[in-house]
Design brief:
Blueprint (H helix, E strand, L loop, with lengths): L12 H15 L9 H8 L3 H4 L6 H26 L3 H17 L12 H8 L8 H21 L8 H20 L8 H15 L2
Length: about 200
C-alpha cells in the first residue's frame, strides 16, 4: 500500500539522483535553507544546468525530494506497524518511527523544525505543490487500523475515528516539537514518547 504511494509517478534517474542528494545533505545536518542547487547537482553527479531541465527552482527540487522521501518513510511506517502487536505497541512504534525520522533528518520532518528556509521556500510554491496531502491519506489508513485494534482490545472507546485522528496527530505534533526544538535535560526521549502514548489513550476514553 504505502510503498506504492506514488506508483503512477515515474522518476527519471537524474531526478532520483537529485532527490537522494537532498536527502543525504540534510542527513549530514545541513539546514534546508542553506542548500544550493549547485551542491545538490554536484552531489547527484550531474551538471547544474541539468536541474533546470526538470525543475524551475530550488524550491521545486526540495518538494520533489520531500515527496520522494515521504513515500519511502510511509512505506517504512507501514512495515513497522505490520510487525507490531497490540494497540499500545503500535502507538509506541508510531512514535519510534517519528523519532527515527528526526534522527535521520528525513526531509519531511522539516515541517516541524525551526528553519527559516522552510518559510522562504513555501513562498515560492503554488498552494497545491505540497506533497503531504497524498501522504496524509496513506497515514490515515495506517492509523485507522491502529484505532480498530485499540477498540477490539477494549483499550479505547468506540467513537468516530475523527477523534482518534485528532488525538494521535496532536500528540505526534507535540512529540515532534520536542524532538525538533524542545529537548531538555529534564525529560528523556523515552519519557516524552510514553507521555504522548498515554495522552492518546486518555483522550480516547
Amino acid at each position: 500500500m504505502a510503498a506504492n504511494l506514488w506508483e503512477e509517478k515515474t522518476y527519471p534517474p537524474k531526478v532520483i539522483a537529485m532527490n537522494e542528494a537532498v536527502i543525504s545533505l540534510l542527513a549530514e545536518g545541513r539546514e534546508l535553507g542553506s542548500l544550493r542547487v549547485s551542491e545538490i547537482t554536484q552531489r547527484a553527479g550531474i551538471g547544474k544546468g541539468t536541474a533546470y531541465e526538470y525543475f524551475k527552482s530550488k524550491a521545486e527540487i526540495i518538494v520533489s525530494a520531500m515527496e520522494y522521501d515521504l513515500a519511502k518513510q510511509i512505506a517504512r511506517l507501514a512495515e513497522i506497524e505490520e510487525n507490531a502487536t497490540g494497540f499500545h505497541e503500535r502507538l509506541e512504534a508510531l512514535m519510534n518511527w517519528v523519532a527515527e525520522s528526526f534522527r535521520k533528518h528525513s526531509v519531511f520532518t522539516y515541517a516541524f523544525r525551526r528553519d527559516e528556509g522552510v518559510r522562504e521556500m513555501s513562498k515560492e510554491l503554488e498552494p497545491d505543490a505540497c506533497p503531504f496531502s497524498a501522504g496524509r491519506a496513506e497515514i490515515h489508513k495506517i492509523l485507522e487500523q491502529v484505532l480498530v485494534i485499540g477498540e477490539q482490545e477494549g483499550i479505547i472507546k468506540k467513537m468516530d475515528h475523527y477523534f482518534g485522528f485528532v488525538a494521535i496527530y496532536s500528540q505526534l505534533m507535540i512529540f515532534s516539537m520536542y524532538l525538533g526544538n524542545m529537548q531538555t535535560e529534564n525529560i528523556t526521549e523515552e519519557e516524552a514518547r510514553e507521555f504522548a502514548v498515554n495522552s492518546i489513550i486518555k483522550m480516547l476514553n
